Amino acid sequence: QLQLRESGSGLVKPSQTLSLTCAVSDASMNSPDFSWNWIRQPPGKGPECVGFIYWSGGTYYNPSLQSRVTIALDRSKNQFSLHVTSVIAADTAVYYCARGRGVWFGVMDVWGQGTPVTVSS
Amino acid sequence: EIVVTQSPATLSVSPGERASLSCRASQSVGINLAWYQQQPGQTPRLLIYDASSRATGTPARFSGSGSGTEFTLTISSLQSGDFAVYYCQQYKTGQMYTFGQGTKVEIK
Asked: Do A108 and B46 touch (CB under 8 A)?
C-alpha cells in the first residue's frame, strides 16, 4: 500500500524559503498514470492546490503562487519536493503531499499525513 | 478559476438519519467532481470520484450524484464515524482543481 510522508521546516521566518519533501514508498513515481501534488490547508479553511508535477517532469502551479513556487522530482531518492520563496503569514497552513490520478490527474487517492508550517518571526 | 460552493456550512443530523450535502460549481465540470471526508486533525480521505464512483473502501451508504454544476453527496444512514467535514473538489480538464469550503456534519 502506497504511503507518502512529508518532512521539512515547520517554522519559517517571513521573506525566507519554505522547503518540504515528500517520500514515496513504492514505484508509483515511475508510472505515467499519476501526478505528484502539493496541497495546503490554512487553519479552518478548505484545501488549496499549490501545484503538481507529472511523471515527465512537467509542472503546474497555482497562478496565485506561481512566481514563488518550485516543485521537483528526485527519482533516485523516490521523492518530490516543494520550495516556496518569500513566504508571508498567509502561507501558514498544513501542507500535504498527495498522489493524483484519473481525469486530468485530479483525483487525490493517497495523501500524506500533513505537516504544519507556520510563518512567523 | 472555477469556484466551488458547498451548502450548508453545517448540517445537524441524528445517527441513523439521512444526510444530503450540496456542491455547486461556477461553471460546468461534467462529472469531474470528487468528495473527501476529513476527521478532526486527520488527512482528507477520498470517498467519491467522477461524481458517483465510490473509492476503494467507501461504504455503500455513501452515494454521489449530479453533473454539470450541481452535485450531491448522500449518506443514507449516518453512523458515528461519519460525523466529520466533507469537501467537494472539481478537476475539470485544463483547469486548476479547486475545493469547496466544506460542510461539517455534526450530531444533532
From this structure: yes
